[in-house]
Amino acid sequence: MASHRRPKQPSRARVTVLTTAAAAAVVLSSQAANAAPSEKLTKDEVKTKVDKLYEEAEKATEKYNGAKEKQETLQKEISTIQDDVASGQEELNELRDSIGLAAAAQYRTGSIDSSLQLFLSSDPDDYLDKASTADQLSAQQVEALKKIQEKQRELAQDRAEASDKLKDLASTRTELGKKKKEVQAKLAEAQKLLNTLTAEEKAELAAADARASRSSSERVDLGSTASASSRALAAFQAAQSKIGSPYVYGATGPSSFDCSGLTSWAYAQAGVSIPRTSQAQANAGTRIYSQSDLKVGDLVIFYSDQHHVGFYAGNGQVLHAPRTGTVVRYESIDNMPFQFGVRI
What we know:
The protein is 61% helix and 8% strand. It is α+β, with helices and mostly antiparallel strands. The longest helix has 71 residues, at 124-194. The relative contact order is 0.11.
């Protein structure tokens, strides 16, 4: 016989929860439908943000360059110390071998009392010669022991120094990796912003940048270079030969450069070694605080943290590697916050 029991009704609490959830869903759905879409950045706003990201990337690039330079220096120093340790250990082994031979000879002849050896000797004169030689060996032995002690101290110091530098190298490599990731993250963020632009907007930005990147065939009125030193002028001319080369972070030429990579490479072509980073280059010569006193080939330092450097090109122009997405080119010195010049 079929059951006529009524189905169990949901509890009042359960009905209340379900009703509230349904109402909330309706409200959220209505809000989503009526909400205005997030505003798209204009081309100029994107450019402003991208330029800021490129500037931050360049700051990180100069720190990356400093860590890379330190790493290379440490590697050379460690290699030299390790060579010194190997050479010193070989010298120490030779000193120990010579002491061992002398001690063995002394043992063989010195185990009998000297007066008894003289009494038993068939040739007293020969014995006296040997005794004199034994005395010399003893003096040499003392000197050799002093050398061994000194060499052991030197080796201990060298090994401790190598150990410290190896720790510093490990820390520097970690810092290098962090700065590389930081640069890459800034560049990726900038590219993401650029990708929000339409094809037409991208073309407009590219055209504007192309106009800024004057080719080497275009004439730029740089004024007189007569007052420049021969080496500064040679460095500047080397940089001029790279106009149109792309900016690549961490690059030091000869086909691509970052800002300090260009200046250090160009001065190297003139036979002058200057530091790798813009901050270090800021202290590499005499500072020139007035733009009117600058000469062609002087370095020009920009921004309060000194993270950008270029060449003074004359007539209020600088020649530099500006940032990612650009090439080595001339620009007005007023396009960036001038700090001072540096005469190498």
